[in-house]
Amino acid sequence: MQKRLDIKTDYELIYNMIEPNSKVLDLGCGDGSLLLNLVKGKKIQAQGIEINEVFVRKCVEKGLNVFHSDIDSGLFGYPDDSFDYVILNQSMQQTKKVDFVMEESLRVGKKVIVGFPNFAYLWARMRLFFKGKVPITISLPWSWYNTENLHFLSIADFIDYCEVKDVFIEEAFYLGKKGLVKFLPNLFALNALFLIKKKS
After folding, report:
1. Domain containing residue 88
2. Which of 10, 72, 107, 129 has the fewest CB within 10 Å, making it most exposed?
3. Three-state DSSP state, 168
């Protein structure tokens, strides 16, 4: 796996999933760090959508093509299969209309990369069971009253969703504190990263 400097593990995995010279749409692209690495290293055609105006300005300062918009409103300006990859990393669970956002992502992207925190992580379960409080972990660092997450799902939930929606999981990576998790990821992984596409 090719190493990239100054990026998180999930960014590194995403970087390696994406083929050079691809057309990429990043939904909830934040400050554009991931897109910038992909532009420089993979020579992608980058497009981003971000709701936070401060982040949009940071993206523009980096020379990235990013629109200020809410992905809950849809991707109606984009034709079917207009991107090789759509990225939904740590943003899907923050949308109001998850199902709609997923359908739109799979419509405009030939492949979709989805990353999210695993709510069924062991320590999250233990905090809920023993303390009776909403879990706070490395991947879920907020309190119940200031969390950005609107939906709390597990790895098993997402796999079930893909089966129900007839979505093919091409690759899956499960991230723990010390690297990739191979054993019982729904219990031991902090975050999950999936590469999915519509079944043909």
Report:
1. 9-118+153-198
2. 129
3. strand
